Amino acid sequence: MQDIDIAMLATKTAEGEITSRPMSNNGEVEYKGDSFYFSHATSRLAAEIAQDPRVTLTFTIEPGLLTGGGTYIAVQGQAELIRDKARFAEHWSPDLDLYFEEGIDTPDLIMIKVHANHIRYWYGAEQGEFDV
Q1: How far apart are CA 76 and CA 117, in angstroms?
Q2: Are 99 and 38 in contact (CB under 8 A)?
């Protein structure tokens, strides 16, 4: 997963539909079961997580880009909305200033922590799954 920056983060809408959006992992490359993303507290994403914290992350490396074969990872987990600026700073990347012009002081900023519960993967003909 170290080579994959963008994940599709899937949540359940108020109507019970599944929706996804691309999210950057902010350069966090040491995966220990938690992923961190930033958004606004008033976003639909935050509202959906507040209603139902069960989420799915999907990561993809298309065939030939890095490994010569496709790599696909699906992470089922629990999301948590964090409003602590000290914790923001632990996971902040200067690239985020493009989206959040006031950095960790951006009004309405939240951090979304996704703790993995179960992971499935496909790497060429190899596949597997495990609980985290």
Answers
A1: 6
A2: yes
Distance of CA 107 to the CA centre of its chain: 21
Residue 83 tokens read as 């409003």
SS3 69: coil
Tokens 């700073």 belong to: 89
The boundaries of the domain holding residue 126 are: 6-131
The answer to whether residue 1 sits within a structural domain is no
The Cα–Cα gap between 56 and 53 comes to 10
Instruction: Examine residue 46 and state whether it is found in any structural domain, yes or no.
Output: yes
Domain for residue 95, yes or no? Answer: yes
> What is the reported pLDDT for 69?
73
Residue with the larger pLDDT of the pair 25 and 23: 23
Is-contact 92 74, C-beta < 8 A? no
Model pLDDT for residues 80-96, shown as the tens digit of each residue: 999 999 999 999 989 89
Q: Rg (Cα) of the chain, in Å, rounded?
A: 15
CA 105 – CA 94 distance, rounded (Å)? 13
pLDDT digit string, tens, across residues 31-68: 778 999 999 999 999 999 999 999 999 998 877 655 56
